Amino acid sequence: MNHLGLGRWGIMEPNLQPDAVPAVKPGDTVRIHYTCRLEDDTIFATTRHREPLEFVVGESQIIPGLQEGVLGMKVGESRTFKIAPEKAFGPYHEEMTATLDRSMVPPELELEIGTSLRVRHADGHESDVRVTGLTQTTVTIDGNHPLAGKELTMEVELVELVEA
């Protein structure tokens, strides 16, 4: 037995419990690398070849499912999780689509599938839509977000954490 009474254990070292490492909580600022995949495994967005995404957890600048998914993460940790449409870009609303007579579109606009347009509604407010269909006489537009109604798979790595 040594003079500290530690017996066969030898020298004592600090007890570094995993809980001593900070974990993400609301109000913290985080920097993450992420890859967002659609249900068919198509990569929709990624930060892997650019700067990490920075945001404050709990503020409305990022979809709720991503904010919830990083809670409890620690720097260096990676996590993969799914985000339901309701926690991402919302459900798909069929009533946000319309087929218009082509005469309602200024003739100088060159339209193709995927073209973004700003439309003015009867009540005066404006919104962004995408062209989703074209014929000689009609234009079909969709005001839903392109990811509305889609489940997302997020692969996230926590790069930096600044506690609130």
Detail the topology: elements first, then pairings.
Blueprint: E1 29-37, E2 43-46, E3 53-56, H1 64-70, E4 78-83, E5 97-101, E6 116-120, E7 126-134, E8 138-142, E9 152-162
Q: How would you explain this protein's 3D organization?
A:
With 164 residues, this protein is mainly beta. 4% of the residues lie in helices and 35% in strands. Strands 1, 2, 3, 4 and 9 form a five-stranded antiparallel sheet that branches. A four-stranded antiparallel sheet has the order 5-8-7-6, with no helix packed on it. A hairpin with a 3-residue loop joins strand 7 and strand 8.
- By CATH, the topology of the largest domain is Chitinase A, domain 3
> What gap, in angstroms, lies between the N and C termini?
46 Å
Q: Which structural class do you get from the secondary structure elements?
A: mainly beta
SSE arrangement, N to C: EEEHEEEEEE
Biggest pleated sheet? 5 strands, antiparallel
In percent, how helical is the residue content?
A: under 10%
Number of helices: 1
- Nearest-integer average pLDDT: 89
Number of E strands: 9
The radius of gyration over CA amounts to 25 Å
What is the annotated CATH architecture of the largest domain? Roll
Shape: elongated
**Proportion in β-strands:** 35-45%
Estimate nothing, just give the exact number of structural domains: 2
The CATH class of the largest domain, by name, is Alpha Beta
Low-confidence regions: 1-6
